[in-house]
Design goal:
This protein has 11 helices and 5 strands, in the order ββαβαβαααβαααααα. The protein is α/β, with parallel strands linked by helices. The chain has a 5-stranded mixed sheet, with helices on one face. The protein starts with 18 loop residues before the first strand and ends with a helix.
Length: 253
């Protein structure tokens, strides 16, 4: 596993790319609270010690799994089952992990930023984001972690939207996104070295594995150009102002 000096990073035996989203300053003079909201790569391979640390050191109350039903059916959720931690599945890509859709999903795209924008424009995606935000906003669900597989794309998009709604500046959001780079590189190199590749890997374009700052810059810029702001984006997709107010109330200090 990678040793990361980043103070937001939380290290486990078999959970990677897990970090606290606390500590960021907002443009309105507040700070994102520590220890309430976390982002991560997949949790299904956690060890017994990892689960103990999640429950006792972090006090984790809730997990939002952003993977698709296809991925969960084929990969499982590991020790989270019967762990006593609330588990919510909010799929941001309904057909995620289905090898038959991989080439079609990225066809005509040149980077992951374009893919993020393509997702954000979809009605169902926006509704899923709002569903996840409603879970995140409730104090009964905190501390909470949301994750996908690598903790890069679906997790990265949701983290960006949450932080932006809270008032964190784009530069900090981009920097947070880029913290996933060494973990994704580690996963990519591990996959390349495996004798038998996963079915889906050959269907993924090379740019899928790049955690480039331009991806998140493009995404955040497009949201502002097309919707005015991230807060306005979720309102366009059906969110009420009360959700924004609750997120700010329960996640800012």
């Amino acid at each position: 596993m990678i040793n990361d000096p980043n103070p937001q990073q939380v290290n486990f035996e078999s959970i990677f790319n897990f970090r606290d989203l606390g500590g960021f300053r907002t443009s309105e003079g507040y700070k994102v609270a520590w220890g309430k909201l976390f982002r991560s790569g997949e949790l299904r391979q956690m060890t017994g010690n990892d689960l103990i640390n999640l429950k006792e050191k972090i006090g984790l109350a809730c997990v939002i799994d952003l993977r698709s039903k296809y991925e969960i059916e084929h990969q499982g959720i590991g020790l989270l089952d019967d762990s006593g931690i609330k588990y919510k599945n909010v799929s941001l890509i309904p057909d995620g992990g289905n090898k038959d859709t991989q080439r079609e999903r990225y066809a005509g795209l040149h980077n992951m930023g374009e893919f993020y924008i393509k997702l954000a424009r979809q009605k169902q995606f926006g509704q899923s984001v709002i569903e996840a935000l409603e879970i995140i906003a409730e104090t009964a669900n905190q501390p909470l972690v949301f994750h996908c597989t690598a903790g890069k794309d679906r997790t990265g998009i949701l983290a960006a939207i949450v932080l932006s709604i809270l008032g964190v500046v784009d530069e900090d959001i981009v920097n947070d996104y880029c913290l996933s780079a060494p973990y994704v590189e580690f996963l990519y190199n591990r996959k390349k070295s495996e004798t038998q590749k996963e079915e889906n890997q050959d269907n993924l374009p090379e740019f899928f594995w790049k955690v480039a700052p331009e991806n998140m810059v493009l995404f955040l810029t497009a949201l502002k150009q097309e919707y005015g702001s991230t807060r306005q984006y979720i309102k366009t997709k059906g969110a009420e102002q009360s959700l924004i107010d609750l997120l700010k109330k329960n996640l800012l200090t």
